[in-house]
């Protein structure tokens, strides 16, 4: 390979195959989110397995709502680096759900939704991983024009928040029975691992901030996380009867969701205002 070839590959292009895969995933996420939100009491017949209490269904749906925003972002992305940092999170999340499924096959319904679930999670982590590897050299490492440089203190702080979420998710995932005894609502071993997988998303996404300071690389991802956080916050209100206030984890979890929602909203607004200001300084053309 000549020295010119790597530079030629770094065209920041989203390949058609990547867009088509994202477009294929979106309908699954939309249907799953709809069923979990609208029919949480009928998940045994309409979804892949019976989920109780409804709050567990809502939390999984919140991840799907954020995923819808992310995969729509892939379909319409103007540059690969705009969505690149979300691919590892999808691989970890989908891979964790595949393992949880194989560990708890006896909990699943023998219906069409489970067949769709199995196909989706048996293929998605591997396809997304391959696409990420194939697309990786196409990121030139340069910012948009205009763009915002995320300050180091913000990147480190958000990465630390993500690390805490990831560690909490890993503990719930690896020790589901222990987590079920202290969690903010009732969990089964399966729903504990699903909840742990949901918590992992923030950690994997925010880890990318340690290597990348371009707001353009995280703009879509933070929009997706904001949507997901808002959905979780709304779920805590709608399904408040499922919360177990005699457990210390309950006020801690509710408080952390509230703080995270405000923090992410303020950070996103700050970056967007700076981007708009910088855009007004850049000459047209």
TrEMBL record:
Transmembrane segments: 20-39, 59-80, 87-105, 111-134, 155-175, 190-211, 218-239, 251-271
Protein name: Uncharacterized protein
Record key words, sorted: Membrane, Transmembrane, Transmembrane helix
UniProt keyword annotation of Transmembrane present: yes
Organism, as annotated: Microbacterium pumilum
């Amino acid at each position: 390979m000549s020295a010119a070839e790597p530079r030629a590959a770094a065209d920041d292009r989203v390949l058609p195959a990547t867009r088509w895969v994202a477009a294929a995933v979106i309908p699954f996420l939309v249907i799953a989110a709809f069923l979990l939100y609208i029919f949480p009491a009928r998940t045994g017949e309409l979804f892949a397995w019976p989920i109780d209490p409804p709050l567990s269904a809502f939390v999984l749906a919140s991840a799907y709502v954020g995923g819808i925003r992310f995969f729509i972002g892939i379909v319409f992305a103007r540059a690969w680096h705009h969505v690149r940092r979300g691919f590892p999170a999808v691989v970890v999340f989908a891979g964790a759900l595949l393992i949880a499924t194989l560990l708890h096959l006896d909990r699943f319904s023998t219906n069409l939704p489970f067949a769709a679930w199995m196909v989706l999670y048996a293929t998605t982590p591997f396809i997304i991983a391959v696409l990420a590897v194939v697309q990786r050299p196409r990121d030139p490492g340069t910012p948009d024009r205009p763009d915002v440089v995320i300050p180091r203190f913000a990147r480190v702080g958000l990465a630390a928040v993500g690390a805490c979420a990831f560690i909490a998710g890993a503990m719930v995932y690896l020790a589901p029975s222990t987590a079920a005894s202290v969690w903010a609502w009732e969990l089964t071993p399966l729903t504990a691992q699903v909840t742990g997988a949901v918590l992992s998303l923030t950690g994997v996404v925010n880890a990318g901030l340690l290597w990348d300071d371009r707001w353009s690389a995280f703009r879509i991802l933070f929009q997706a996380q904001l949507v997901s956080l808002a959905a979780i916050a709304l779920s805590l209100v709608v399904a408040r009867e499922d919360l177990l206030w005699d457990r210390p984890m309950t006020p801690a979890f509710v408080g952390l969701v509230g703080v995270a929602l405000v923090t992410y909203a303020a950070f996103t607004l700050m970056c967007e205002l700076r981007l708009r200001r910088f855009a007004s300084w850049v000459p047209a053309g």
